[in-house]
Amino acid sequence: MTSTAAASTVEQIAAHITAAVRAGQLSPGQRLTEAEFSSRLGVSRSSVREAFRRLTADGLLALAPHRGVTVRRLTRDEVDNLFAVRGALEALAVRLATPTLSAAPARLVALRRDLDAAAEANDMPRFSDLNARFHALFTETAGNPLLADTLARLSNSIYWLQFRVMVDRRDIFRTNHDHARIADAVAAGDTAGAEAAMLAHVETARRLVQSLDDNHFAHRDAQVGSA
């Protein structure tokens, strides 16, 4: 296998695991083994090992003493820290993207319309997908690869928490009002207003995650290993 093919295989494995965590098919604290994923996906154990290493570095998985690789479980303090950084970076993405999107708002307008329809229909899977695309639009338009990569890593860390919120809390649909405020400010070229609306939106998401029961979080003294 060429180095390019090997890299592609590792990326596919990592994407598979990330999607499984986001969909709730892999739960926090669940142990993952190279043998299981090698057999399930028909790939080498070395490729699985490298995918585990990357996802551990990203914060989605953890290397736990005496347990091996597990799906990472965050403490409440870690969640707050992640959302604080995420809010600042999402606001930066909006600030950088606003001049371009205000001049050509067609994609933003279409996403807002589709989000409204999904919320009205109580279609959680579609709403979740559109929400991800809404945030990605600003990151992509910002034109800053480092910003995009950092936000992707932060999102990986809280995928399972976002999933639990969307399954257990129908009030997630109320966050769509935030989407409308962000979109209106961006379309009007109101950079400061768009940044403020995005920060408020991320804060709403943080509060919803923190409203989950304690059993969804690691204890404060939990030790998280790294690759």
Query: How would you classify the helix and strand content by structural class?
Result: mainly alpha
String of helices and strands? HEHHEEHHHHHHH
| CATH T-level topology of the largest domain | Four Helix Bundle (Hemerythrin (Met), subunit A)
Residue fraction in strands: under 5%
- How many separate domains? 2
State the helix count: 10
Question: Overall mean pLDDT score?
Answer: 90
CATH class of the largest domain: Mainly Alpha
Descriptive tags:
Arc Repressor Mutant, subunit A; 70% helix; 2 domains; Four Helix Bundle (Hemerythrin (Met), subunit A); 3 strands; mainly alpha
Task: Explain what this protein looks like in three dimensions.
This protein has 2 domains: 3-72, Arc Repressor Mutant, subunit A (Orthogonal Bundle), CATH 1.10.10; 76-214, Four Helix Bundle (Hemerythrin (Met), subunit A) (Up-down Bundle), CATH 1.20.120. The model is unreliable at 223-227 (pLDDT under 50). A 3-stranded antiparallel β-sheet has the order 1-3-2. The protein is mainly alpha-helical. The protein contains 10 helices and 3 strands, in the order αβααββααααααα. Helix content is 70%, strand content 4%. Helix 4 (76-103) packs across helix 6.
Compose a concise summary of this entry.
70% of the residues lie in helices and 4% in strands. By secondary structure, it is mainly alpha-helical.
Blueprint of the fold:
Layout: H1 3-22, E1 31-32, H2 34-41, H3 45-58, E2 61-64, E3 68-71, H4 76-103, H5 106-120, H6 124-142, H7 145-157, H8 159-168, H9 176-187, H10 191-210
Antiparallel strand pairs: 1-3, 2-3
Helix pairs in contact: 1-3, 2-3, 4-6, 4-7, 4-10, 5-6, 5-9, 6-7, 9-10
